[in-house]
Amino acid sequence: MIYVALLRGINVGGKNKIDMKMLKQTFERVGMTSVKTYINSGNIIFTYDSLSKSEISHLLEEAICKDFGLQIKILIRSFDAMKIIIDALPETWKNDQNMKSDVLFLWDDLDSETVLSKLVIKPGIDTVTYVNGAILWSVDKKNVTKSGIIKLGGTNLYKKMTVRNVNTTRKIYQLMQDIVSTN
Fold first, then answer.
1. In this structure, which CATH number among 3.30.160.20, 3.30.70.2190, 1.10.10.10, 3.30.70.1260 belongs to the domain 90-164?
2. Given this model, what pLDDT does residue 155 score?
């Protein structure tokens, strides 16, 4: 089965530094195959068939602790789960000089449409949608300082998600598709 591991809070502001080549070796050491990393923010695509998502997450968290001495939370998404998110992303959403569009990947205990009621969403500024496994959030760059997404950082809610911009999310999915087409 093809998965992506989304590591929360690595290589941010000089904290929790992990070299991607070494991280790839850690994944391979614990049995993951077809391992590919994408950018330094902790996106690792791999195949594995023996365990559930939560068991894989636990295995990888322990391996990272052993190899790097860091307690890093890892969210696992399957190829099929990523396809649901990708299919829900409006094609017009981008992360560029005019638009900020993010995918807020949710840990399982937070993964419900009711999470929207816990967010500060500014009508006319924020466009926010729940899809199974994530919240899709977009705002014009000129309105970012007025956006409710600014109020999310540092909250307990924020600690139960990991964020990737739409460009990164689409690239991760493309890398997962590449594995599908070679198998």
1. 3.30.70.1260
2. 85
